[in-house]
C-alpha cells in the first residue's frame, strides 16, 4: 500500500537528478544520476547523491546523501563536473560506481560495500599493461555483469558533424569492452556496436544513429541497449543476442517532447526538448523507462521522470507518452492539490529546442517552468498556449481552482482533448500577486486527460491546481 501518489517528476521539485540509472538492490529502487544545480549555469555542477524507495512503495523516496564528491577523484581537485554515472554490483558483491569527469577522456571507477554509502576512488579503466583507455570518447558508462561476463558500454558521437572541432574527430559510435572480474581492466579493444551519424549508411540505425547515453539490461536472454539518438530528445533501443555484437535498431521508447508518439512531428512537440538519458528497471511485474525533462531556459536544469512501458510478444517496446502520473499504478486522484509544474505538456504549438547556451527572458516566446525565491511555477503563458496533465481520474472532480498571476484579463479553457470541445472556463483578472479563481465542472468516467488553453492578451503564470471532489 503506497503512502502517497507517484507523479512526474518523482523526486522533490528542488532536486535535479538527470541521466538516471535505476537499479534494484536489497528490495530498494535506487537512482544514480548526474546532479544539476537548480538554476545552474552548466551541466552537472553538484556532487553525486543517491535517492531510493522501497520497491513496494515507489512514492516513498528517501534521500541517501552524498555518495561521491567531485574532489574524491584524485585527478579532479579543480572540482570539474561529474557526468552521467552507473552503479553495478560485481561478483565480489561490492558496488562499483562508473563515471567520467568533464574534459578528461577516461572512465573512472569508485567502490563501496553498500549501494548508497561513501564510495572510494578505485582507478581508471585500463588495458592490461596499465595504459588508460581513452578510445572512442569514453563518456556515459553503463555496465552489466551477466553469465556472459562483465561488459562496459560507453561513448559519445556528435550529431553536429559540421562543427569544426568534431570534424577533426573520427568518432564511430557507441562502444563496448569486456572487463576482467577486477571491474577495471579491459580484455580487448573496444567494439563499435551502434554507428554514429557518418557511419550508419546501410544499417538499421539510419535516422536514429548513436549520440550518447548508453544503458544496458539483459531481458529474456537478449541484451537491450538504451541510447540517446542523434535526435537527442529520444531514448531509443537496440537488441542483440550477444553483448558485443549483432545489435539491431528496435525503436523509440520515449521522447521528452512526445515527438514521434502517435505520429507527432518535430514541429508539434508538446514540451521544450533537450538531451535525454535514462534506463530500464523492472519492479515486480512492471517495467519502467527513466528519462529526464528540462526546466528553466537551458538544458542545465533537468528533472527525473519515469513511465510504464510494455513489451510486445516479439520483444519490441512501443513508444510511450510522457505523463504526469508516471509510475503511479493508476490515474492520479481527481480530488487533490497539485503544483502546476507537474504538467507533462507545455506548448505554444511551435516549441523550439533548448540549447546549452541559455536564453534570456527577453528572448523567450514560449511558456516554461521557472524557480523564483523557492517558488516553482509555469510562466510566460500567452494566447492559445496549452498546459496539459495526464492521467487523472477526473470523474472525481467537481470543481477546479487555479492559483495564478496575470498581466491582463483572460480565460483558461478546460478541455480533455487538446483539439476537443471546451468543458468549462476559468475567468482570470489582472494581478501582480498570486490569487485564485475557480469553476464548477463535470467530467465523464472515461476522461483522464486535463488541458488548459489560455485565451487573452498579455501573459499568465500558474502556481497550482486544486481539483476538488465531493469531500472538498
Structure characterization notes:
The model has no long low-confidence stretch (mean pLDDT 93). The chain has one helix spanning 164-167, and strands at 21-25, 28-32, 48-54, 62-68, 86-89, 95-99, 108-112, 120-124, 142-146, 149-154, 173-179, 191-195, 210-219, 222-229, 234-240, 248-255, 280-283, 286-294, 302-309, 337-339, 345-347, 368-372, 375-381, 386-390, 399-406, 410-415, 424-428, 431-440, 449-456, 460-468. A hairpin with a 2-residue loop joins strand 22 (368-372) and strand 23 (375-381). Strands 20, 22, 23, 25, 28 and 30 form a six-stranded antiparallel beta sheet that branches. Strands 21-24-29-26-27 form a five-stranded antiparallel beta sheet, with no helix packed on it. Helix content is 1%, strand content 40%. The protein is elongated. The chain has 472 residues and is mainly β.
Low-confidence segments, given as residue ranges, are none
Mean pLDDT across all amino acids: 93
Number of beta strands: 30
Overall geometry comes to: elongated
Task: Give the termini distance in whole angstroms.
Answer: 24 Å
Considering DSSP H and I runs of 4 or more, what fraction of the residues is helical? under 10%
Report the biggest beta sheet as strand number plus sense, adding barrel if it closes.
6 strands, antiparallel
Please tell me how large the radius of gyration is: 23 Å
- Count every helix, treating DSSP H or I runs of 4 or more residues as helices: 1
User: Structural class of the secondary elements?
Assistant: mainly beta
- Fraction in beta strands: 35-45%
